[in-house]
Amino acid sequence: MSTTSRRRLSGIGTMPRMRHLATELNRQHTVETTVYRRLHAHQGRQIPQLYASVDVDMALPATATPWQRKNLFSIRGLLMEYIPGFTLANLVVSAPRSSWQEIVIQAVREVQILGDYEIANEDVRPENFLVAPPQECDNNNYNSNSSPGQSFHYPTGYRVVMIDFAMCRFREPDMTDLQWERLKCNLEEENAVGLLMKKKLANQGFELQYRESGRYSQFAEGEEEVEDGMVAFLRSGGRNKKREPLREMSV
User: Fold this and answer.
1) What share of residues in the chain are helix, strand, coil (percent, to 5)?
2) Cβ-based neighbours of 237, under 8 Å, separated by 6 or more
3) Which of 53, 97, 108, 145 is geometrically suited to a Cys-Cys bond with 44, CB 3.0 to 4.6 A?
4) CA–CA separation, 86 vs 107, rounded Å?
5) Would you give the end-to-end CA distance of the chain in angstroms?
6) Which pLDDT tens digit goes with each residue over 81-134?
7) What is the Cα–Cα distance from 219 to 17, expressed in whole angstroms?
8) Nearest to 156 by CA among 202, 101, 84
9) Quick one: DSSP state of residue 79?
10) DSSP label at 244?
11) Phi and psi at residue 33, in whole multiples of 5°?
12) Confidence at 201, pLDDT banded by 50, 70, 90
């Protein structure tokens, strides 16, 4: 369950609100599971290894209705790899200064992976990255998704892991290239890590070498001028066609 989900649980009250919360939490579980499926090739490296999606049943009161039994008294969750370490938000007090540059850049690179799988994350922030120190990376468990005999090298010895995907969105089958790339541009996912950490580390007298990739930045200009399909077509370089949805992969 995401941090956002746990916050929302604190306000449970009337049955309509409970129904809304149950529906929302189920939706977030489905979204997060879908992200792990799409990023299967990165499990055990840039994201945790996912072992299973589980349902844990709670004790049922005698008055529970069938809907309540299914949605309120059955907790959906994900069984995944445990990663000891610290969050990127605590980088300054948890890792040597010499490692800061590469650790942050690893996080930015992992954000860029999302676009390759037509995923947009509305909750990118330093708190949603775990950093495992070198002594933990020596454990072969982190390599569980590699081919036999294959190792995965982390430049600084620190492994950076992206987590918490419940607030992600996916490209819809009828979205044009222009619509999708503008959505990605407006979210500024890279800056939510790179720029924020650059400012934070500057307070420590450290100059982080970070520059946004610009992969979607061209779509931020002149948005008001896109009034018809012809302008949109020209802005997208003739690429504003519809795409088929990505085929889902197994966990």
Assistant:
1) 45, 15, 40
2) none
3) 145
4) 13
5) 18
6) 999 999 999 999 999 999 999 999 999 999 999 999 999 999 999 999 999 998
7) 38
8) 101
9) E
10) P
11) -60, -40
12) very high
